[in-house]
Amino acid sequence: MVEFFFKPSAEKQLNRLDRQIKIKILEKLKFYSSQDKPLQFAERTVDNKFGDWKFKIGDYRALFDIKQNKIIILKIGHRKDVYK
User: Fold this and answer.
1) In the sheet where 60-67 sits, what is the strand order?
2) What is the pLDDT of residue 21?
C-alpha cells in the first residue's frame, strides 16, 4: 500500500471543489493507494513543471511526484485549468 500526501496548496484546491467531485477524487485516490502498483494507472506528464506524474480522474487531474515510496499530490484541478 502506498501512502498519499497532499501539499497544502493541493489540499486547498481539493477543498474548493464541489462535494461530489471531491468525494469521487478521494475514492479514486484511495483505490490507487490500495493497489500494488498504483503507477499502472498514472501517466507521465509532458511538462514536468507541475509534477512528473498525473492521475486522470474524469475531467480532473491529480499531478504528483514520487519520493521514497510516497506519492505527493502537488496540484488538483479540472483538466483545462490544472496545467496553468
Assistant:
1) 3-6, 70-78, 60-67, 53-57, 42-44
2) 97
Place of cell 486547498: 12
Res. 14 pLDDT band, cuts 50 70 90: very high
Count of all residues that appear for the chain in the document? 84
In a 3-state reduction of DSSP, which class is residue 70? Answer: strand
Q: What is the pLDDT of residue 69?
A: 83
Angle at 80 between CA 77 and CA 81, to 5 degrees: 50
The sign of the CA dihedral 26, 36, 59, 61 is positive
In the chain, what are the domain boundaries?
A: 3-78
Which CATH superfamily is 3-78 part of?
A: RelE-like (3.30.2310.20)
